[in-house]
Amino acid sequence: MLARIVSKSNMTAAYGQVMANKGCAGVDGLKLEELKGYLQTHWHELKQTILRGEYRPQPVKGVEIAKPHGGKRLLGIPTVLDRLIQQAIHQVLSEKFDKDFSAYSFGFRKGKSALQAVKLAQNYANTGSRYVVDIDLSQFFDRVNHDYLMRLLSKKVPDKQLLRLIRRYLQAGILAEGLSSKRTEGTPQGSPLSPLLSNILLDELDKELERRNHRFVRYADDFSIYLSTKRSAQRVMGSISRFVESKLKLKINKQKSAVRYIGHMTLLGYGIYRMRNQQFGLKVQESNWQSFVRKCKWLTRKSRPYSFDERVSALKSLCYGWIGYFRYANIHSRLKSLDRLLGSRLRYCIWKSWKRIRTRIRNLKRLGLPEWLAVKWGFTRRGGWHVVQSPILQTTLTNERLQKRGFMPTANIYKRYCHV
Fold first, then answer.
1. Cβ atoms 25, 79 nearer than 8 A
2. Going by DSSP bridges, is the β-strand pair 60-66/174-176 parallel, antiparallel, or unpaired?
C-alpha cells in the first residue's frame, strides 16, 4: 500500500488537493508556494525514505482558535510536506474504508454533506421520532485512543510499514508557545488524515446503532439518535453512553449531552420547529443568524475604505455561501428585512462618498431631482443616516438602481437556490 501511496498519480492528486486547501507553513517554515521546488529537488530521496519505513514526521504547530460559544480549541498544523504525505495516505485509505462506512455518516465523505444530515433529521421528526438523544463527545480529537484506533486500522491494512507511519503521525509532538510536548492520545485537528481516522473509529458506534435498529445521524463527532418516546430516549442515552466510554475509550460531556424534544435541539447550525400544519420545518440557529447579520453590517460600514464595487462583491460572496448552506431554512421574510437594512447602509456609503456639496447636487440632479430640490438637500446640515431614510434618496437611489450597480438582494439569492 505504501507503493500505491507514493505513486506518481496519487501524489499528483494529493499535491493538487493540498494546494487547493491552502494553509500556512508548519514548524519548519516551508511555505506552500515553495513545496513544488522542494519536491523537484528532494522527492526521489524522500520517496525511498518512506518506502524503507524510515520517514519520521515533524512536530505539528499548535494554534489556538476561539470556539463560537466560548473557550478555545487547539489546532495542529502539520508541515506542508507532512500535509502532502497525509493527503496521499488519506486518498488510498478512503478507497479501502469508505465503502463500508454507514449510510448515516455524513462527515468528511465524498458525496455526503451536512445538508443531507439535516434533511434526514427533519425526515425523522416528520415520521414520528420526536425525542433526540443528543450526545456531545468531550474533546474528541484530543482523546482518541491510539492503540484502539491502530487495532481497527490493522483489520484492513496489511502493510505494517504504513501502520507504523500512521502511528508516528499520531504520536508526533505538538509545538505550542515554543515548547514541544509528546502526544500519547488524540489526533490533531487540522491534519488531512484526522477526519478519516475519526470516521474509522466512530464507525464502530455507527455499526452498534445499526445493530440496535436506531434512527441516527452522525457528522464527524456530532451525532444524535431519534426516538418516538422520552422514556425510550432516556434508556438509549444510558446504554449508548456506556458503550462510548467503555468500548471506544471516549469521554462524554455531561453538561452538553441530554435527551431533548426535537423542537429544542440544533444540528449543524439548523434548528427544527413545528409548523402550523403540524409538520416540522427547519430554521436557522439564532446565533448563526446574528453572526451573519454582523458580517453584513461590517462589510457595509461607511468607515471601511472600499469602493462600492468592492463592497458589493464581498457582500455577494458572503451571502451566496451563507444562504447556500441555510437554503433549507424558512428565512425569506428575514432576508427581505435584511435587504432593506443593507440597501439603506449602501445608500449611506454612497452619500458619504459624495463629500462636497457640489458633488451631492450634481449627483442628485442625475438621479432625477429638480435643481431646487437637489440644491436644498445638497446643502442640508442633517446627518447622513437621516438623509438616507428620507424619501429623497429612497425614491431615487432605490434598491433597483443599486442592483444595476452590482448589489444582489439576499432574498433574490434565496429564491435562486429554491428554484434550483
1. yes
2. parallel
Strand partners for 284: 270
φ, ψ (nearest 5 deg) of residue 395: -100, -5
- Model confidence at 169: pLDDT above 80: yes
Find how far residue 53's CA is from the centre of its chain: 35
Residue 378 parent element (H or E): helix 371-378
Q: Is the pLDDT of residue 212 over 90?
A: yes
Give me the sheet containing 131-136, strands edge to edge.
Answer: 215-219, 222-227, 131-136, 258-261
- Cβ atoms of 58 and 173 within 8 Å: the answer is no
Buried b (16+ CB within 10 A) or exposed e, 208-218: bbeeeebbbbb
Question: Do the beta carbons of residue 284 and residue 329 sit within 8 Å?
Answer: yes
Using the predicted structure, report yes or no on whether residue 176 has a pLDDT greater than 60. yes
CA quadruple 255, 256, 259, 261: dihedral positive or negative? Answer: positive
Are 210 and 102 in contact by the 8 Å Cβ rule? The answer is yes
CB 340 within 8 A of CB 394: no
Q: Where does residue 94 rank: exposed (0-12), middle (13-18), buried (19+ CB within 10 A)? A: middle
pTM above 0.90, yes or no: no
Question: Which phi-psi region, left, alpha or beta, contains residue 63 (left: φ > 0; alpha: ψ -120 to 50)?
Answer: beta
Least confident of 7-16, 25-34, 48-57: 25-34
Question: pLDDT of 309-332, one tens digit each?
Answer: 999 999 999 999 999 999 999 999
Residues 351-357: what's their mean pLDDT? 88
Q: Which value, to the nearest 10 degrees, does the dihedral of the CA atoms of residues 104, 107, 109, 113 take?
A: 80
Give residue 187's pLDDT.
75
Average pLDDT, the chain: 89
User: Is residue 402 within 8 Å of residue 346, measured between CB atoms?
Assistant: yes
